Hints:
613 residues; alpha/beta; eight-stranded antiparallel sheet; seven-stranded antiparallel sheet; binds 2-deoxy-2-amino glucitol-6-phosphate
Amino acid sequence: MCGIVGYIGKEQAAPLLLEGLSRLEYRGYDSAGVAVYSQREGRLNVHKAKGRLKILSGLLGGGDAVEGTVGVGHTRWATHGAPSDENSHPQVSRSGKIAVVHNGIIENYGELKAFLQSQGVPFASETDTEVVAHLVEYFQQDGADILTAVGRCLHRIEGAYALGIISADAPDQLIAVRKDSPLILGYGEGCSFLASDVTAILQYTRRVSYMDDGELAVLTRDGIQCYNHLMQPVEKEICAVDWEIGAAEKGGYEHFMFKEIMEQPEALRRAVFPRIRDGEVFLEDFSLPEDYIRSLRNIHIVACGSSYHVGMVGKYNLEKMLRIPVEVSLGSEFRYMDPIVDGKTLVVVISQSGETLDTMAALREARRRGAKILSIVNVVGSSIARESDQVLYTWAGPEIAVATTKAYTTQLAVLNLLGLYLAKVLGSMAAEDRREVLKDFLSLPEKLERVLENKDGIQYFASQYFNRDSVFYIGRNIDYALGLEGSLKLKEISYVHSEAYASGELKHGTISLIEPGALVIALGTCLRLFDKAMSNIVEVKSRGGDVLALTTESRADEMAKTASGVIAIPDAHPMLLPLLGAAPLQLYAYYVALMRGCDIDKPRNLAKSVTVE
Ligand code: AGP
């Protein structure tokens, strides 16, 4: 979603802001802008353009045409007002002296706008953000300094926001504010940064701190001072980011998505190997007491999108391992559904970014009801990680493509490891059964490499079917959960209509859609239900549909007798098969999108991290 970068230092700000914004392009956006203070002119110069960042960068000669050493930049993903130059950020106050970049939504902007208009303030955009610029200026009418005015403004605005504010009257500082939308502070030599995402400033500094909700920061060339909501100074812990810059670059691949698909075996090794020792699971810094685990009545998994699909697989596996009820809810539903969650419920929150607003809101609702929160997160220091009682990181490294791949796989792995750990504490699974799964776990990265080696085979199938307008994914049990993810992958990057169904539901309605030309991707990795999968394939074929099937190597020949095409994955423990089965589905979606000429890493209308409701 929207991205923020801010810089104050001795270098020219504009090239640096544009470079930082380019690192945030993956988040999804529709327009971009910068505001830079010119010492010579004694004013802010604001430049904005609808469309890709390269348009803005072209207008500004890569930033060389803009003079000044302090500024803010923004990539906007439209919420209030269509993508346009006027609605792009920075938004400025009437005098042009205050410029604001904003991620999130000001929920009471209508009321504030009416108030400001009644005071004669003219509005130039349809955005909610513009009220912030005008309101700060309004609160300076009595001569208040910028910090005081921003503080007053915060008492009036409601909603979720990360703000970067620059004032021509106080050009030796930048103001940063955070509430429910991430903001990171960066510490350099003679310079300071702010950013919505660490990737924006990684090439300039690795020393960062994470703003907490309600905090305000003043950035100068000499350092950063943070304040809490009472405007009392707070000391921030400075962390060293150990992500390699190269990990957030394409490294010779045409697309981040393809690179990240290929990185999965390595990501799995990082997520799994250090957590298995002597045939047992070890979860680092695990602090939930065993008595508490034994007292659990149920587990409730909460997540959105692909992370929710991980939860769906988790429900099947965890219930098998733990023999206690496991419910899975979408973050956006959980917060409004009066869930049955209390001190005897462990809420497992799954999120790649750790910043998804609906998931975050669900976490807070669960905590309010007395549950403990265990999160499975990729981004270190993210909001969800910091608000959880226990965090298990997926260690997948930066994931840039909007369509998640390696984060999905590592989330699955970590959730299974968590299940095995809890099963040991609960005594719900025999030791040899746990060891059997763990043994197979260790062979997964190498098996996944074999799956990826077959990419040309999957590309061939994509070339056969890429022009189909509608695709159905069917499967039973854990294959159904995997189908949900395969279908999401296809639709989000190739814009092909696709839906996933539990195979048994075909006869209850969906089968009416099967006719010659329909493509069905039948998942048959759940071998105890193999015969059922075969029957469903026959049903589809006899109505003229084409069936591309996915199963394990041991049953591939049998399936090939019926299906139109078969993709085989190595055999493994049944609970772990989705870890191997996801990759062919990711590759299939990737090649279809490639053949349809889609913008794979930045699909239309989508954002990597969904920080609005
Ligand atoms: C998946 O490819 C999507 N990009 C999306 O569904 C994503 O999984 C969802 O928005 C949740 O994101 P999170 O894991 O960062 O919370």
